[in-house]
Amino acid sequence: MPGRTRPIEKCRITCMTPADIAFAVSLTDREGWGFFGSDFETRLRLYPSGSFVARHGRESVGMISSVTYGTYAYLGNLIVREGHRGHGIGAELMLHAVNYLLGKGVTTIELDGVWGAVTMYRKLGFRDKHLSLRFSRPADKRAVEPMNSAIPATPIIALDRKLVGVARQRLLRAALTDRRNSLVVQGSPVSAYALIRERAGGFSMVAPIIAPSWRQVPPLVDSVIKHYGDRPLWVGVPEPNYRMSQFLLSCGFVSREPSLRMYYGTRLNYEKHVYGIFGPAIG
Ligand SMILES: CC(C)(COP(=O)(O)OP(=O)(O)OC[C@H]1O[C@@H](n2cnc3c(N)ncnc32)[C@H](O)[C@@H]1OP(=O)(O)O)[C@@H](O)C(=O)NCCC(=O)NCCS
């Protein structure tokens, strides 16, 4: 990158603590990523040593977070404060987090890379997997019908584990029991689900969307739009599930700039039943 200079002073990287949450939210707010302080509280409760802050002296200048689902881990929220970028801090945070995860016995690490950062991830050993497509839909003015989404978390967690094969029950339980979030399901007993997660900034992520076959997905998405389309909606779709992209475009979603799903270590192919990702920072 022309004109880049290396750091004059190496930054110190420490574990994120509750005292860093306001700083973390200030960074995600600037990027428009829609995080609440409670997202970081949950993260620190479930993974107390998996998030890191870079500091120059007493000043916090960057962060990264990780979640682990057994031997699979996911990196997200890599942000360096404007004015401190281009001095190696982002790469330093990445190295620190990757080494932390490898030290825990993790064999696969994934992330969704924005295009500006893909070169850095490749240099650090990450490989391209597939596009991670993004879709958004403006708020629909039509009245929506209220919906009773009181379904116990346990069958959803069991379904998710069966169809995705990744042990993400801790974070999923936290999301399913968050009163801000809502659930839309298909079948009885439940065979497909979409979680609607309210985000800061007035939009909702429909994330994840999990179904055993394509057949169940259109009615699930129709139901989400009918009941929750009064807010702007956001969906992240793994590129291989191309039918989902076509369908979203047919129901008023527009395509946004995609990210690149990348992996380090062993490649896992668990996307077959994933029609909506859990989130750009959690997999
Ligand atoms: C992406 C980000 C974290 C990089 O942090 P940084 O401290 O500026 O990155 P570094 O200085 O450590 O750069 C490391 C390498 O990444 C590459 N790189 C980083 N940012 C880049 C950019 N915007 N364009 C091109 N290359 C870039 C460079 O090749 C550099 O390699 P070099 O050391 O050989 O020059 C920072 O730009 C940022 O916070 N962006 C906004 C949030 C974001 O998009 N996060 C990534 C989400 S996936």
Topology:
Elements: E1 12-15, H1 21-31, H2 37-46, E2 51-56, E3 59-69, E4 72-80, H3 89-103, E5 108-113, H4 115-123, E6 127-137, H5 153-164, H6 169-176, E7 182-186, E8 192-199, E9 203-210, H7 217-228, E10 233-238, H8 242-250, E11 254-265, E12 274-276
Parallel strand pairs: 4-5, 9-10
Antiparallel strand pairs: 1-2, 2-3, 3-4, 5-11, 6-10, 6-11, 7-8, 8-9, 9-12
Helix pairs in contact: 5-6
Bound molecules: coenzyme A.
GO molecular function: acyltransferase activity, transferring groups other than amino-acyl groups
Protein name: N-acetyltransferase domain-containing protein
Organism: candidate division GN15 bacterium
Q: Can you characterise this structure?
A:
The protein is of the alpha+beta class. 30% of the residues lie in helices and 31% in strands. Strands 1, 2, 3, 4, 5, 6, 7, 8, 9, 10, 11 and 12 form a twelve-stranded mixed β-sheet that branches. Helix 5 packs antiparallel against helix 6. It binds coenzyme A. Coenzyme A (COA) binds next to strand 4, helix 3 and helix 4.
| Strand/helix succession | EHHEEEHEHEHHEEEHEHEE
Return residue spans where pLDDT drops below 50 for at least 5 consecutive residues: none
- Relative helix content: 25-40%
Query: What's the CATH superfamily of the largest domain, by name?
Result: Gcn5-related N-acetyltransferase (GNAT)
Large-scale geometry: globular
InterPro entries: Acyl/Acetyltrans_Enzymes, Acyl_CoA_acyltransferase, GNAT_dom, YitH/HolE_GNAT
GO molecular function: acyltransferase activity, transferring groups other than amino-acyl groups
Protein name: N-acetyltransferase domain-containing protein
Domain N-acetyltransferase: 11-148
